[in-house]
Amino acid sequence: MPGVTIDKNHCKGCELCVKVCPQQILAMSKQISIRGYFYAEMIDSSRCIGCRICAIVCPDVAIEVHVNGTVFSLFEY
Ligand code: SF4
Ligand code: SF4
To answer: For position 11, which CATH number holds?
Structure first.
């Protein structure tokens, strides 16, 4: 099953991933990260289709997508 991992401490809370997810399964947290931002989080991983759009738009490369055992990470810090 596809899924994503969001590194909340790299997220700057821009909400781009929340807006573009075709499944509308990402949302902003009600808590802040150590950087002082509200961060994106998964709210219903069972509906993720592994499209990777969230990872592609993230300007902070905070999202990894897992599809069929493969991890798609666009950039390593
Ligand atoms: S991989 Fe696609 S469906 Fe899954 S959270 Fe990202 S944008 Fe949404
Ligand atoms: S696109 Fe990246 S930086 Fe922006 S809210 Fe989503 S995870 Fe955070």
So the answer is: 3.30.70.20
List, for residues 13-67, the tens digit of each pLDDT value: 999 999 999 999 999 999 999 999 999 999 999 999 999 999 999 999 999 999 9
In ligand 2, the atom with minimum distance to the C-alpha of 26 is: 6
The tokens describing 47, both together, are: 């509906």
Give me the number of domains the chain comprises.
1
In a domain, 61, yes or no: yes
- Cβ 48 under 6 angstroms from ligand 1: yes
- Does ligand 1 lie within 6 Å of residue 51's CB atom? yes
77 in any annotated domain: no
Q: Is 58 touching ligand 2 by the criterion CB < 6 Å? A: yes
Burial class (CB in 10 A: 0-12, 13-18, 19+), 62: buried
